[in-house]
Amino acid sequence: MAAKSFRFLAAPALLALLFAGCTEHLGRRDGATSFAGDAKAANAAIMTIDPWPRHAENTQIGMDGIKAQRAMERYYRAGDTPTPQPLQLTLTPPPAAAPPASKTD
Questions:
Q1: What are phi and psi of 10, to 5 degrees?
Q2: SS3 state at 6
Q3: CB-facing half-sphere around the CA of 20: CA atoms within 13 A
Q4: pLDDT beyond 80 at 76
Q5: pTM confidence score
Q6: Are 31 and 37 in contact (CB under 8 A)?
Q7: Alpha-carbon distances of 94 from 61, 87, 88, 89, 99, rounded to whole Å
Q8: What is the DSSP string of 18-72?
Q9: What is the pLDDT of residues 28-69, one digit of tens each?
Q10: Residues 39, 32: contact at Cβ < 8 Å?
Q11: Cα 25 to Cα 20, 30, 33, 36, 49, distances in angstroms
């Protein structure tokens, strides 16, 4: 019975020790909450009047599925590297050598 009571008390004590290390980090916040500090950016975002252009709300796109599929296939093929063509070399014999010049002294 003593072993069961030890386990019953040891588990919460171990968790308390593990979480005790977090209190130092949590106590060093600059604001009242963990989300504090962005008031200037939040106010600027609230005061912004619809930054998106009017046509961004249009969900009726004038294209059918076949054209969209062809466009996607062209897009994916654009990234492929072209197949290398076999190298064709044409060898021509060098021009005939001129006869050596005779030495005249």
A1: -70, -35
A2: helix
A3: 7
A4: yes
A5: 0.23
A6: yes
A7: 65, 21, 19, 15, 15
A8: HHHHHHHHHTT-SSSSTTTT-HHHHHHHHH----S-GGGG-------HHHHHHHH
A9: 555 556 666 777 877 887 888 877 788 888 888 787 888 889
A10: no
A11: 10, 11, 13, 16, 38
Longest Cα–Cα distance of the chain, Å, equals 127
Q: Which one-letter amino acid corresponds to residue 80? A: D
- The helix/strand/coil state of 1 is coil
The single-letter code of the amino acid at 103 is: K
Token pair of 5 as six digits? 């009571």
Residues 30/36, Cβ–Cβ less than 8 Å: yes
Q: Report the alpha-carbon distance of residue 71 to residue 55 in Å, rounded.
A: 21
Tell me phi and psi for residue 48, to 5 degrees.
-70, 130
